[in-house]
Amino acid sequence: MSDRSFGQQLRVLRQSAGLTIEALAEASTVSGRAISDMERGRARAPQERTLVALADALELGDAARAELVELARAERSGNRVGRPKLYELPRGLGDFVGRVPELELLVRRGREASGEGPAPVVVVHGQAGVGKTACAVRAAEQLREVFPDGQFYVDLRGTDAEPMPTVEVLDRLLRALGVKPGAIAEDEQERASQVRALLAERRCLLVLDNAADEAQVRPVLPGPGAGMAIVTSRRTLAGLDAVSRIALAPLSPLESAELLRMIVRDGSARAQGGEVVEVARLCGHLPLALRIAGTRLASRPGWTMKNLAERLSDEDRRLAQLSVGDVGVEAAFALSYAVLSSRAKTLFRRLAHVPSVDFAAPIAAVLTRTDLFTAEDELDRLVELGLLQHEGADRYRFHDLIRLYATQRLRDEETLEVRAAAEQAMADWLLETATMAGRWFEPEAGEPPAEGKGLVAIASPEEAHAWLQVERDSWLAALRLAAAAGRHEQVAGLGEAIYWFAGTMDHWSSQWVEVFALSRAAAARLPDRLAELRHLNYYAWAVLGVGRLEESAALAMEAYRLAESLGAVKEQAEAIWSAGEVWRVASNLDQALWAYSRARELADTAGAHITFLQSFVGAGLTLAGLGRVDEALREFRAVLRQIDGRPVPPGMAQATRAAVQLGLARTLADAQRWQEAIDEATPALAASTEMGRRWYVGHVHLVLGRAHAALGAAEQAREHLTAGIELLQDDVVTSPRTMDEAKAQLAALGD
């Protein structure tokens, strides 16, 4: 074999064939730059595919072809000076846990690298401490055989004050690829071309760790070829085209517990199940936090997992506890925080005020006194850096540990006065918006405003309902703050506005007890005695919803006597109707019948049309309970006639019809008039479902189940009974006897 290098032999063969570099490039389809670099020793010998193309273009005979191939193989095998180091990866983790689908995707993309088309590029992104580097290195280990020509790792220092310049990244790669220092171009673009030319001929894997932004890595990415690049970053690097992206989330609870046990390496009482689960939860299932916690425990033989959990349970000290040696969770978060703009830092800190798990852009705008579009832009920047997570299409949330870091920054960087002002502005906005939304459901308030007010457009009952549901934790927390601060008018105002919405949300029973306990206490401190009376009635309704019957009856009668003393006939009617509801549920039926009769009389006098209609419904249900079927049916049908003759808002009319239809159906079913019961229950089911009233829907299903079972339609009966039981199984108002009977009937149907 010739003692020339591969590049020297290639030049001799090209010149012997009378070809310029450009001519050989055109004949072989190998780039002129690549041929030039090979001949001058700036690039290693090419792979087999490129060798074949060059030999064919040079029209080499068998001997010359074999010699050129042998020189290339010898040079690639490392027999010559300048061979690059392979597998220059950080040390892998022996206790690596999880990331199965992510690794499968990375390995699959690596195995797809065929040289036909652009080399695959995968961006692994996520918040600080989520394990991006560990995942990338693990994938590289699994791809070692796929990329035999080298695996090259570069820490881009993207979170440093001065990330590694791209020109330096290219220099390091070129040296690792075997290019002599003197042959490395000075210009960044030329260096990038050199890297792409070399990578086009080799099966190499680049791990570009901790990228600052797109501009830093774009020139480094391989072009067409059989290589691959894995880029890790706290940012999504959304500006990179034609790349795959993998968003890393914290580990699952099971994976977190497994990782802790592996780090502690102790199956004794130091790492028992419940305590391991608790430590994992307190670490937010974040790999960095889990490793630090596990290492602290492993290095302290006298500690148990319980000791560690107790230390981490203090929110004010948790971040400090999650630090060992020169590694800490707080320090990792601080690197992301440091690169934020002043406005983004302010938003990040103040989002710690948000009381709910997730939130939308309007609350961010309130906290920073900016417009909605600016707030959305800043939120997206926080997401881009991994300091926030998207929750659905338009909501955001903190990781638990990052929320603690934001709270710490808030305390350290803003005065008590500034913090208090921001928190009150948020609470005021939440209560104003909740009050506005609640007014859409008031039956006698007239036409609600045509447009929403402020940052949230609430222009329909549907929009109001949606906002009140999704922001429940936030406006309820704001209500607590207002109550604690003695803002009684604000608290009572929300209770007044939201009462009729409360009736649409049966499954919020415990929340309504708190809401109306606060509004009742606030109203009692205001000079308006009628307002105090109304809120007493609201609270009586709320405690009835959680099954506190004696308390509810006592409250209703207290309200009745207060209304009587004030000459407030309408409120007196509402109070005695509430007492009737309690007595009926408690099976004090004669007392309930008297209460409904009295409520009807008072409501008719006061023009309280809704209470007037409700007293008919209550009386019908009570008569049915007494076995006075015909009288009950007359009461129910009287309501249907009265609805059309009284000025009742459409929503209340719909709700009343649904209640009457259910009452008719249950009464007919109790009288074993099965087909008539089905005829009444079928439209009742549609109406209740349309309103979203869980309690009504559940009971209509039970009636239909009973009736179909009695008529021998077992399949339909089974379907309705199952649905009713599922809807009502946690309802405290539905009697245990009703549920037991439904379950027994379902069991009797068999399989």
Can you characterise this structure?
The protein is elongated. It has 36 helices and ten strands. The longest helix is centred in the middle third of the chain and has 23 residues, at 416-438. Helix 28 packs antiparallel against helix 29 (589-606) and helix 34 packs across helix 36 (736-749). The strands form three sheets. Strands 2-3-4-1-5 form a five-stranded parallel β-sheet, sandwiched between helices. Strands 8-10-9 form a three-stranded antiparallel β-sheet. A two-stranded antiparallel ribbon has the order 6-7. 47% of the residues are buried. Residues 79-87 have low confidence and may be disordered. By secondary structure, it is mostly helical. A hairpin with a 3-residue loop joins strand 9 (389-391) and strand 10 (395-397).
Task: Looking at this protein, list some descriptive labels.
751 residues; elongated; three-stranded antiparallel β-sheet; AAA_22; P-loop_NTPase; mainly alpha; Cro/C1-type_HTH; Helix-turn-helix domain-containing protein
Layout of secondary structure:
Blueprint lengths: L5 H11 L4 H8 L3 H8 L8 H11 L3 H15 L23 H12 L9 E5 L6 H11 L8 E5 L10 H11 L11 H13 L4 E5 L4 H4 L10 E6 L10 E4 L5 H12 L8 H10 L4 H12 L6 H8 L5 H4 L1 E2 L2 E2 H10 L3 H9 L7 E3 H8 L3 H13 L4 E3 L3 E3 L2 H14 L2 H23 L22 H10 L1 H13 L3 H15 L6 H16 L4 H17 L3 H18 L2 H17 L3 H18 L2 H17 L3 H17 L4 H21 L3 H18 L2 H17 L3 H15 L7 H14 L2
Parallel strand pairs: 1-4, 1-5, 2-3, 3-4
Antiparallel strand pairs: 6-7, 8-10, 9-10
Helix pairs in contact: 2-4, 6-7, 8-9, 11-12, 11-13, 12-14, 17-19, 17-20, 18-19, 18-21, 21-22, 21-23, 21-24, 23-25, 24-25, 24-26, 25-26, 26-27, 26-28, 27-28, 28-29, 28-30, 29-30, 30-31, 30-32, 31-32, 32-33, 32-34, 33-34, 34-35, 34-36, 35-36
Pfam families: AAA_22, HTH_31
Protein name: Helix-turn-helix domain-containing protein
Organism: Nonomuraea composti
